[in-house]
Automatic annotation (TrEMBL):
Record-given protein name: GDP-L-fucose synthase
Sequence ranges assigned to domain NAD-dependent epimerase/dehydratase in this UniProt record: 15-251
Pathway info: Nucleotide-sugar biosynthesis; GDP-L-fucose biosynthesis via de novo pathway; GDP-L-fucose from GDP-alpha-D-mannose: step 2/2
GO function terms (MF aspect): GDP-L-fucose synthase activity; isomerase activity
The family this protein is said to belong to: Belongs to the NAD(P)-dependent epimerase/dehydratase family. Fucose synthase subfamily.
Record-listed E.C. numbers: 1.1.1.271
The keyword NADP belongs to this UniProt entry's keyword annotation: yes
Keywords annotated in UniProt: Isomerase, NADP, Oxidoreductase
Length: 327
């Protein structure tokens, strides 16, 4: 039957990772190569945007034909900083819809056994009760600032369910909270919040100036170290059978304010100067607390890297690679 022929896939896995040069891609590569995440006979291919422009269906098809993956971890996305997203919601919507449809449909066309895509906690409804769990992601529109990107990401979940309904495919998705770590984009203008703050604090220390933090420092976030996300995505690829997405996050009790995070960064970089909060600038969402109880049901003993330790390791990596970092 149509559904049955997708189940037959003997032999070792060949895993294609889109967005392989990004923060999470590099973390997965580290786990695969340095932590025994790769099994005997497996092949892992990490694609970057120079290998193929996934907005283009022809280039997507060509790269799949070149490597013939049995499994795909789909991390690639068109992203920018908060202010770029606010200006160009249409562009982010269209590019990401194309990327996701190209990857998922090409995977289908070529008989890929399983796809694990990466969603984002920014897809959560703006007006909601907390904590948010996996059943709530479509309950109302996402935050207005990047609704284009968020809706495109939500559609992956819709498409996964449709591939399962029509073909029995095991395509699923993870939803990490705020990821940070080595190989992040440390750009002060459009980097992730922690990484931008690490760069800012490092510069302020060098120049003997205060650190200026955008907003009040009050918003709360669940930060998760990229290597933890890498380990969990590989677990999802191998073990997680559901089509419904799974939130990949530290617990609600590990949520911290931006101010607490800045203090940890200052400590890690031995910054003794002044920290100022510019309250004329927007705070964005005050919180988007996610519930990780589904993850905990599957993996009760998974140990997350403590935030202080993870920030220290990220700061050390940043200082070692500062000149080559994209700053």
């Amino acid at each position: 039957s149509e559904k049955q022929r997708w189940k037959i896939n003997a032999g070792p896995m060949c895993v294609l990772v889109t967005g392989g040069s990004g923060l999470v891609g590099k973390a997965i590569e580290h786990v695969v190569q340095k932590e025994g995440g790769k099994h005997e006979g497996e092949q892992w291919i990490f694609l970057s945007s120079t290998d193929a422009d996934l907005v283009d269906v022809g280039q997507t098809r060509a790269v799949f034909e070149k490597y013939r993956p049995t499994h795909v971890i789909h991390l690639a996305a068109k992203v920018g900083g908060l202010y770029l997203h606010m200006r160009e919601n249409l562009q982010f919507l269209r590019d990401n819809i194309k990327i996701n449809d190209n990857v998922l449909q090409t995977a289908h066309d070529m008989g890929v056994t399983k796809v694990v895509s990466c969603l984002s906690s920014c897809i959560f409804p703006d007006k909601t009760t907390y904590p948010i769990d996996e059943t709530m992601i479509h309950n109302g529109p996402p935050h207005d600032s990047n609704f284009g990107y968020s809706h495109a990401k939500r559609m992956i979940d819709v498409q996964n369910r449709a591939y399962f309904q029509q073909y029995g495919h095991r395509y699923t998705a993870v939803i990490p909270t705020n990821v940070f770590g080595p190989y992040d984009n440390f750009n002060i203008e459009n980097g992730h919040v922690l990484s931008a703050l690490i760069n800012k604090t490092y510069k302020a220390k060098k120049e003997g100036t205060p650190v200026n933090v955008c907003g009040s420092g009050a918003p709360r976030r669940q930060f998760i170290y990229s290597l933890d996300v890498g380990r969990l995505i590989i677990w999802v690829l191998r073990e997680y059978e559901e089509i419904d997405p799974i939130i990949v996050s530290v617990g609600e009790e590990d949520e911290v304010s931006i101010k607490e995070a800045v203090d940890m960064i200052a400590q890690a970089l031995d910054f003794k100067g002044k920290i100022q909060f510019d309250t004329t600038l927007s705070d964005g969402q005050m919180k988007k607390t996610a519930c990780n109880s589904k993850l905990r049901r599957y993996l009760p003993d998974f140990t997350f890297t403590p935030l202080k330790e993870a920030i220290k390791m990220t700061c050390d990596w940043f200082m070692t690679n500062y000149d080559t970092a994209r700053t």
